[in-house]
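Cont'd.
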Amino acid sequence: MTKPLQNITDLTLKELQQALSVLGEPSFRATQIHQWLFSHRAATFDEMTILSLALRKKLAESFSIHPLSAVNYQECLEEGCENPTQKILLELQDGNQVESVLIASENRMTGCVSSQIGCPLQCPFCATGRMGFRRNLTAGEITGQVYALNDLVAAREPGKALTNIVFMGMGEPLLNTDNVIEAIENLTTRNYRFCLSQKRITISTVGVIPEIQRLAKSGMKTKLAVSLHSADQQKRESLMPIAARQYPLAELGKALSEYSSSTGMPVTIVYLLLRGINDSLDDAKILAKFSKTFLCKINLIDYNSINNSKFKTVYSAARELFQQYLMNAGLHVTVRKSYGTNINAACGQLATVGIQNPQ
Ligand code: SF4
């Protein structure tokens, strides 16, 4: 069997420049091709009419253009909400699959994208963690998810586009930072068609300290969300063992403090409330103490159940007391509404295992 040609959208701009130089072409050709791929979304080299016929032929002999293909699609309409949450299962060139979610609200169309296939951090409450880790997604595959979600938006409301992107899908984005940053560049470059403001993009991490430090120095304007789930080291280790041991709370607190003071931007502390585990007033007290050391806001989320899980959703009365305690301590607190729980599209529920193909 002949090996498939390399998918050109898997190359970073730098790799594209190197590949073009091997073909004896100047570097600006790589920039033009990159724009055709990620701004014009060319599906064939023949569409790149700015290139000579000879170069288009050379490219087609060495590379393919393999867009992500949608193999399943689900939607769910929450009670009292006019806009359905939509989840798509996308197939990649190597046969792996990845999930992405469109969360629609009155003023926003948010694309929730994945950064890895599976996740190496294996948090026990998370369906993605149970899949194990297969590989990082390329920048092209991350960008492709955004385009696929954007097509859903345009199909719903012609002329409309995604307004926000969150890296809260499958995987830990800061264990694939190079590709995440490259994808963000594809989506925010000024003369490209998508051209989203970096401020409308949120990177959500378990707290990969060296990469948070890297983001702080990068000058990027993206927002940072950190999944904390407990401000007690031991309890955090029981909830997210790998992440909590590798990135201890004391060092994480320092890194977040440096991040918010050097960028001037608040960090969103994401706190998943689990009934009887991290939802007491003592838990709120230590969370308040931890969060007061840097500029932040706290986002409380309810647990979205997955199969065979020992965890339970917090009682609303306990959540209200928890929230009130934090607010009384002077913290800015919001409660995140969960979208897409009925189709396993909410936080912590994404996993390609067990999804059936249509027909
Ligand atoms: S919660 Fe996030 S970091 Fe933990 S296993 Fe799931 S995807 Fe990975």
